[in-house]
Amino acid sequence: MQHNSFGDSQCPIARSLERVGECWNILILREAFLGAQRFDEFHKKLGIAPNMLSRRLRAMVEHGLLEKRPYSTRPVRHEYLLTQAGRDFRPVLWALMAWGNRYFAPEGPAVHIVNSATGVPADPLLIDRASGQPLAFPAFRVVAGPAADSHTLAVHPVWPATTPAPAPVPGTEPQPADTDADPRVPALEGCPHDQPDL
Amino acid sequence: MQHNSFGDSQCPIARSLERVGECWNILILREAFLGAQRFDEFHKKLGIAPNMLSRRLRAMVEHGLLEKRPYSTRPVRHEYLLTQAGRDFRPVLWALMAWGNRYFAPEGPAVHIVNSATGVPADPLLIDRASGQPLAFPAFRVVAGPAADSHTLAVHPVWPATTPAPAPVPGTEPQPADTDADPRVPALEGCPHDQPDL
Q: Domain A6-87: which topology?
């Protein structure tokens, strides 16, 4: 792996990727959510080489995403259970699923999220829990936080930004169905003081 | 890459990973959201080898996540702009950021999402747009969709499930702050008819 130093970065995305960024790791989490617990289950479902699976499970235990517990003492056998951190990856996985269904399932969804009681397909939307607002740019933006070091401060703006958030043009406010605004809004290209946003 | 066949899978997560699963690809998207457009910008910000960057940018253009556009004709130079599919990856990236800050930033967030107008840090929550309910298991679950083939049907339950969703135990309903239920609820371990859920 060429990105061993990701975990040293202050960026929470880079740190997360260090833990789950490899395809296999995310698919291992997917299988764990689907009920896999034992080495052989992961091996059978993913078709991953045993030594690779072993290495990845070990790393995910070290990173606190899985907990290794014995389920048999003679012979000694372990199972891998999702920790709270592992379970809390579910929204990321579901957001990824929704994105995949939106763009890479032209034949319709083969797998999707439904309301357990009604069977109605869910339409995932990321919101801010406190305000209830859709979590979309430019109403929300990424800025340096209280623990930012000089490197992070060189890359990310602090709040309040040097220029205010671009005011919506009347009649063009994003609708609830549009969870995102074009990051290439004129302000980004036209005004060098306007800071781009993650 | 050992996972060239992911894109053939019906699983929307596997298909998405085929497009963005490698760490570098997600970090390239991150830089694009931060404003990078030109090869040299991505190169400088990510410290990625030119040939590797070139290959990844090309793949992301092929997958429809970036659009390659000339910005200079003499010499010919291109810039890479997020497409709608690329921009719609933002909720995944933000969900990943929130998860990273929650578990891998013991010193506090170095980078976080704030309300652009107030500066108040956001608390990302995935909900179902139609019903407004938090998108959490077991209120929602992953089932086979209309395009499921026999392989998918062998792995994922269809709705209605063979057994109803486990009823919440009085007094243990998940609070709004708990966006997830323990997938290792007794029903999963105690009742072989209960299907695990992604």
A: Arc Repressor Mutant, subunit A (1.10.10)
